[in-house]
Amino acid sequence: MIKSNLEKLVEVAVSGGAAHPCAREGERVAYDGGSILPACFSGINFTVKVGDPAFDWAGAEGVEPGVAIENCCDEANSGLVFMACVGNEALIVNAAQEGKDKLKGMTGTVTGKTSCGRVLVHFPKRIVDKLCVGDAIQVRAGGQGLALPDYPDVKCMNLSPRLLKALNPSEKGGQVRVPVTKLIPASLMGKGTGDLLPYAGDIDIQASSPDEVKKLALDQLRLGDIVAIKQYDATHGGRFHAPAVTVGVVVHGSGRTAGTGPGINVLMTSPSGAIDAIITRKANLTELLGLQ
pTM for this structure? Predict the structure, then answer.
């Protein structure tokens, strides 16, 4: 196991309720001049889960897998989104449909967070099917502040100790070797680039460049895939930087508005390129974390 400061990390409880989908009035213009329904497929998603395709969901703009949670207090919600890390445990603490099949005490796993202020949690389908909007879910948040002392140029964020152990990064030639499913050029990164949101939001791959997406087989991406972005530094907000490498996880599905597409939460970034991305088909949260 690569040397880290896991023993120094602080864990805290943050919470939110299972959210409601939202929508804007009227149609919006797609990148190709067509129209789209501006509905956010976020909340309790009975259909889409981590491991499913990131593209081609009917009418779904940026579909979010599993259960999206948010806190009704703005300050508390900021804390929820900032502190929750991919791989953290989530616990149902209150549920409307208790019945004989107990929901309270059931656990899930944080799989991402979005720039609209929601944290995404995976639960087994038998649990998702019984959840209600407003059910209270608490996250045992830990991971922000994670560092690799021997690699000061590799910055970690949104990365839980559990996911770090599952990735099991190795070391070779002064680089940290991390398993990923795809390599993505910085030129394809769109919405979120330039924002100071790497700890609390996502960066979109531009699906509005369909020829390039198909050429790189990015249309085969799955929700939960670990990916590497070449020549992209997210240390202080996303930017093009020739030597850099950034590793992230696909957290939501594709979109049709200009500059949008599958969203990525940053997990590791190195402006000097001290990350070596190793291609493997198994670099998905379903396999890494054993999600069902």
Answer: 0.95
